[in-house]
């Protein structure tokens, strides 16, 4: 098993080689230039969301949910893109997160006007980014590669789309980063608290449950369950909202539709979306793809990951963490480009703390940090007039077929290759049934001890 400690370079801690300083300074300068586009829009055409969707749309969905919470009505009440006297946000999409987040984040944000709240949220994310970069530098022992890891936070283009939409995936990335740090340092409650808070921000991080089960951190699991249970009173009082939340989380509202535009869209950057778009590109008359496709991909990915997690003889906690975070992008039914910021902790941790995996992690990072070919296929090789911005459209119908495939492969393929490489590394360390045997023996000992207790 690889030890949980950073790679030490020839330079003493705090003394960086010039190349590391140049990388860090250049990354910060590029980040400032990237953020300037939030005000002036010179990067907007590079990305589907910033080119086609109204700015701050996702932030306003939570902001409006907070407004509904203050009014005492359902936070999931949704009238798309319609402004009435009882609503506060200028526009918004469906709220799809847990109720606690609407009450704990959306409602307090209503103390500010919608746009001031949005820009305040962007500023908060910038502070989180600096905190993460500094934490990377400190956890990495202040070495050259720790500086590279810190720089990686600043030049990841999905972060721009994240800030443009006012999303909450970077909050998740921050919580996942500190959960990974807690796993590496064997700080159970710290890791559990970070993971638990992430579960009430967005539910995506439920994929880390097998990691905590594997290391048998029951207090962390109990803490997370307690935080998630804060949503129970709301759903008891509004049972119909529970069904909506479940369907939204599982993305059934998309997969049960037989409308081609919902699947044949440039917005979705997941592995499932890539497969679907390839099928729909080949068959231009198809309205949908076989429903068995989405039903089989997720179990296959999850079962293989579970086998490696619980059969690995010498599990590496950081590799398990990285593997499970990666799985989300391989089976989930809706993966916009900004979701990929949740992979930043994986890349950073592997580069800084796992020298043997540094090369594949850096290759995957660069592939995901760059924009997709969206600008080329939509603004250069598009054969039809571009329609006015709207959420669901058929832009790809006028793209070259290879452009559709390349656009959808840009993010999930590197993620799939990294996931596969992490699997290979874990398998090379050895698989067996020792852990399961140990758990069986421990359960038998506990059972026999209970039998011996006096009545």
Summarize the structure.
With 455 residues, the chain is an all-alpha fold.
Quick one: biggest sheet?
none
Number of domains: 1
Radius of gyration computed on alpha carbons: 23 Å
Which structural class is indicated by helix and strand composition?
A: mainly alpha
* Helicity range: 55-70%
Count of helices? 24
Q: Low-confidence segments, ≥5 residues, pLDDT <50? A: none
Mean of residue pLDDT values: 87
> What share of residues are in beta strands?
under 5%
Total count of strands: 0
User: Which shape, going by the Cα principal axes?
Assistant: globular
Q: How far is it from the N-terminal to the C-terminal residue, by CA?
A: 45 Å
Order of helices and strands: HHHHHHHHHHHHHHHHHHHHHHHH
């Amino acid at each position: 098993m690889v030890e949980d400690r950073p790679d030490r370079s020839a330079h003493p801690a705090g003394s960086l080689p010039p190349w590391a300083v140049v990388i860090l300074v250049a990354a910060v300068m590029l980040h400032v230039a990237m953020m300037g586009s939030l005000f002036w829009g010179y990067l907007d055409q590079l990305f589907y969301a910033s080119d086609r969707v109204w700015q701050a749309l996702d932030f306003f969905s939570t902001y409006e949910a907070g407004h509904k919470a203050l009014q005492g009505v359902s936070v999931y009440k949704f009238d798309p893109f319609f402004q009435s006297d009882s609503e506060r946000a200028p526009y918004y999409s469906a709220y799809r997160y847990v109720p606690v987040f609407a009450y704990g984040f959306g409602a307090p944000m209503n103390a500010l006007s919608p746009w001031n709240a949005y820009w305040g949220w962007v500023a908060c994310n910038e502070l989180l980014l600096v905190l993460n970069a500094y934490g990377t530098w400190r956890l990495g022992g202040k070495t050259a590669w720790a500086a590279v890891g810190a720089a990686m936070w600043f030049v990841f283009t999905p972060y721009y789309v994240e800030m443009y939409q006012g999303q909450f995936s970077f909050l998740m990335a921050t919580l996942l980063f500190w959960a990974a740090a807690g796993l590496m340092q064997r700080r159970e409650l710290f890791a559990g608290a970070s993971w638990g808070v992430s579960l009430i921000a967005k539910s995506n991080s439920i994929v880390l449950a097998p990691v905590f089960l594997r290391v048998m951190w029951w207090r962390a699991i109990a803490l997370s369950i307690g935080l998630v249970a804060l949503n129970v009173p709301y759903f008891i009082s509004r049972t119909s909202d529970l069904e909506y939340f479940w369907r939204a989380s599982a993305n059934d509202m998309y997969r049960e539709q037989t409308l081609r535009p919902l699947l044949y869209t440039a917005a979705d950057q997941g592995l499932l979306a890539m497969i679907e778009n390839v099928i729909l590109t080949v068959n231009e008359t198809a309205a949908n793809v076989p429903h068995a496709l989405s039903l089989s991909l997720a179990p296959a990915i999850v079962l293989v990951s579970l086998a490696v997690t619980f059969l690995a003889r010498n599990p590496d906690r950081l590799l398990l963490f990285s593997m499970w975070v990666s799985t989300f992008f391989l089976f989930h039914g809706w993966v916009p480009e900004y979701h990929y910021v949740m992979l930043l902790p994986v890349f950073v941790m592997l580069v800084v703390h796992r020298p043997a995996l540094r090369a594949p992690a850096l290759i995957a990072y660069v592939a995901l940090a760059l924009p997709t070919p969206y600008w080329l296929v939509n603004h250069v090789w598009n054969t039809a007039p571009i329609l006015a911005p709207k959420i669901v459209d058929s832009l790809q119908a006028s793209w070259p077929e290879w452009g559709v495939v390349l656009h959808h492969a840009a993010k999930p393929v590197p993620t799939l290759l990294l996931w596969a490489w992490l699997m290979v590394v874990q398998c090379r360390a050895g698989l067996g049934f020792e852990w399961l045997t140990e758990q069986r023996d421990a359960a038998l000992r506990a059972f026999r001890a209970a039998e011996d207790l006096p009545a």
